[in-house]
Amino acid sequence: MESECILTPGEIDFYAASIQPSDFETIGTSSWFEAHERLQRLYQQATLEASKNIEEHVKEAIISNLKLQILVYEAVLISVWKQRILPRILKQNPNTENTFPIYIIFYHEAVVVGLLQTVLYHSEGCEYLQDSAVELVDYCILVLTRIAISSRDAKELKKDKLKASTLEELRAQEETLLFGIGASCLGIIRYLVENLDCVPVTVATRLYSDNDVPLLVCQLIDQESWTRRNAKGDTYKYTDGEWKKITDVQEMTKTEAQLWLAMHQLLLNKHIIHHYELTESRKNRLGRLNRFLHELLLDQLPPLIDLKRWLSQLAVSQVPTMSSKKPFIVELSTEFRSGLETSCAGRWDEIAEEHARRLLQLSRAETVKLANSLSNAFESLADVCDAGPKCANCGDRATQKCSRCKNEWYCGRPCQVKQWKNHKEHCNTVSGVKECESSS
Predict the structure, then answer these.
(1) Which single residue of 252, 361, 364, 391 could bond 398 by disulfide (Cβ 3.0 to 4.6 Å)?
(2) Above 60 in pLDDT, residue 126?
(3) C-beta atoms surrounding 98 within 10 Å
(4) Residue 376 has what pLDDT?
(5) Is the pLDDT of residue 424 over 50?
(6) Integer Cα distance of 369 and 361 in angstroms
(7) pLDDT at residue 436 tops 50
(8) Which superkingdom, per the lineage (predicted)?
(9) What is the pLDDT of residue 430?
(10) Cα 101 from Cα 384, distance rounded (Å)
């Protein structure tokens, strides 16, 4: 069994026990990047365990070591970092070229949220969240709101990276990761709603009363937020971490399935009557979902048959009133974000300057070390998965590596040529250091 794993049980326990909360003083330091690599390997191991339906050591280790609250805090921390510090870094350094360390910070958020989604699939994970479940719900709503705004304002997929500046490419990378994080957030919301009996009542209040998450998810479906089209009219859908060209637009992706299952759970759970008033306006907006629930979709995701039936009944019924037996609610405040905002008030420029020095002035050798650690982690995953390595350009099975850096895989020469613009900087950096090392 261990031959099929990235980490041994002993390594899993050690890595999980070593998870500690980051702060703005440590982000971007060598110790922080090392901690990120350990977390990344835990996430990959957790994904592998879930996909192969084997004993989930990572889930058990994170729960038993009481690390779920720390993972929620990490997600909120990076969210605040992107809002408060990143814009200042880029404003102070508009011509920076070495943005790879910043990408690692983006990716750290995706790893944390992906790991949370994997653990919270189990009801015991939701229970162990305790009060941090409220922090997590607020975080997920913020991410999904960003996606709703982004997908409303930009429906065209821009694939021409040759004319993009370094900062434009960085923004594109951030947005691509955001859509993956959003897909994980949909899964998290679904699991929390499934387990409302074992999380604080404030979670339901946040979902239905303080925020209208059913209508937010409805908007994401209505806008086809995980779908883009290029200038030629080709359709792309976000799935498995990237935008992929789609030939059959009726075929449901994993992300679309998460979207619909979240909608199903939000509307058909037993708690809705206590928290969500189905006004005429809400009825009309939710009723727009019916146009998507055609036979092909229902065949691919049978649970949606119940949702279609519920929506049909809602359309012809009188507006139901909320139950008069409302639960007694003690509102929980979200301390993670407010605490970070308060502790750093008035110091954002100073923190950004320090982070700029730390992240943008790494030596070539330090940058290569970071790039190799990320590459090696993905190679470890490819080695134990049946799919094997994938082409960096088209995503098909890859059989050839870049002959210079030995880090990127391709299915053939045409894809390698197409991908060169994106791979060039990393390849030159890695190859240059290797040449220096061999000559010294």
Answers:
(1) 391
(2) yes
(3) 18
(4) 66
(5) yes
(6) 14
(7) no
(8) Eukaryota
(9) 54
(10) 27
CA distances from 82 to 85, 102, 107, 134, 143 (A): 6, 10, 12, 21, 12
What is the rounded CA–CA span in Å between residue 143 and residue 130?
A: 21
115 burial level (CB within 10 Å; 0-12, 13-18, 19+): buried
CB-based contacts of 242: which residues, under 8 Å, 6+ apart? 176, 395
Do 144 and 186 touch, CB atoms closer than 8 A?
yes
Instruction: Give dist(CA 167, CA 99) in Å, integer.
Output: 8
Separation of alpha carbons 25 and 301, rounded Å = 46
Identify the pLDDT of residue 365: 81
CA angle 384, 370, 374 (to 5 degrees): 20
Please calculate the CA angle 341-205-149 and round it to the nearest 5 degrees. Answer: 60
**For the segment 315-370, what is each residue's pLDDT rounded down to a tens digit?**
888 755 555 445 444 444 578 999 999 999 999 999 999 999 999 988 778 888 77
Percent of the chain with pLDDT over 70: 83
What is the rounded (10 degree) CA torsion for 259, 261, 267, 269?
Answer: -150
- Residue pair 38/108 in contact (Cβ under 8 Å)? The answer is no
Beta bridge partners, 245, equal 236
Per-residue buried b or exposed e for 45-65, using 16+ beta carbons within 10 Å of the residue's own CB: bbbbbbeeeeebbbbbbbbee
Per-residue pLDDT, 160: 53
Q: In angstroms, rounded to a whole number, what is the distance separating the alpha carbons of residues 396 and 205?
A: 44
Phi, psi of 390 (to 5 degrees): -115, 150
Q: What does the alpha-carbon distance between residue 204 and residue 209 come to, in Å, rounded to a whole number?
A: 8
Backbone angles phi, psi at 235, to 5 degrees: -95, 130
